[in-house]
Amino acid sequence: MTSLVQQELADGVATITLDSPPNRNALSVRLLADLKDRLTWALAEPGCRVIVLTATGTVFCSGADLKEQRAAGAPVTGALPEIFTLLWESPKPVVCRLNGTARAGGLGLVACSDFAIAPLPASFAFTEVRLGVAPAMISVPVLRRVDPRAAAEYFLTGEVFDAARAAEIGLLTRAVPEDELDATVAHYTEMLIKGGPEALAITKRLVREVPGLPFDEGLRRMTELSAERFTSEEGQEGIAAFWEKRLPKWASP
């Protein structure tokens, strides 16, 4: 059976591509199972430093597969919670390259990624309430990214909004002209590969966890972490490379 998610590894970047254009890359049970397998592969692959999540066709992801949801005992979301967790907790940076429009559950994938870049013509909507359901699971990552007022506006109305607005409210990192999409994604992946793998994984956690710490506790814990990183093997290699005017081992060809 042909996989609905493709994988490719080149120059430290693992590209994972949703490949089910006939149903606009909807989150079917098969697609979710394939996506989980591909993400597990990328996370375990030593040659992978950065993950790019994208799709074929003109739609990035249309959300849940509604044909499946009509059946008795509908799967609802399949492996989606595990996939959200894999993306959110990935020690390797995840860049979401939106090839086009995204709706509902597809926006959960966007929100779980560290970077999200979309072409300006793309549109977005949380359509759940218009179907009589709720943006339940996707609210977990989305509400950690999006301004609360904007989340209320779009969760409750289901209104379609454009890529520029998506960037304004925090759902996207950048909204760019279509002909700049690949160059912008490459800009981020090339910068990310320059970072130490351990440092990137730790810094991802800082972005999520430090804002929730009491100020004094945050300073205490970060002081300890700073000392640990400067004395770590990776930290010492980075400092040596700086003084010796060379690339560190992790960024060397």
Feature tags:
253 residues, alpha/beta, six-stranded mixed β-sheet, four-stranded mixed β-sheet, 10 strands, globular
List strands and helices in order, with pairings.
Elements: E1 5-10, E2 13-18, H1 29-44, E3 50-55, E4 59-61, H2 66-69, H3 80-89, E5 94-97, E6 101-103, H4 105-112, E7 115-119, E8 123-125, H5 136-142, H6 148-157, E9 161-162, H7 163-168, E10 174-176, H8 181-193, H9 197-209, H10 215-231, H11 233-243
Parallel strand pairs: 2-3, 3-5, 4-6, 5-7, 6-8, 7-10
Antiparallel strand pairs: 1-2, 8-9
Helix pairs in contact: 1-3, 4-5
Report the count of strand segments. Answer: 10
Largest sheet, order of strands side by side?
1-2-3-5-7-10
Strand content: 15-25%
How confident overall, as mean pLDDT?
95
Shape: globular
Write the element-wise H/E pattern from the N-terminal end onward.
Answer: EEHEEHHEEHEEHHEHEHHHH
> Rg, please?
19 Å
The main pleated sheet reads as: 6 strands, mixed
Low-confidence stretches: none
Main structural class: alpha/beta
Q: Please work out how many helical segments DSSP would assign.
A: 11
Q: How does this model look, in words?
A:
The structure is a single chain. It is built from 11 helices and 10 strands. The strands form 2 sheets. It has a 6-stranded mixed beta sheet with strand order 1-2-3-5-7-10, sandwiched between helices. The protein has a 4-stranded mixed beta sheet with strand order 4-6-8-9. Helix 1 (29-44) packs parallel to helix 3 (80-89) and helix 4 runs parallel beside helix 5 (136-142). The chain has 253 residues and is α/β, with parallel strands linked by helices. A hairpin with a 2-residue loop joins strand 1 (5-10) and strand 2 (13-18). The radius of gyration is 19 Å and the shape is globular. The protein starts with a strand and ends in a 10-residue tail after the last helix.
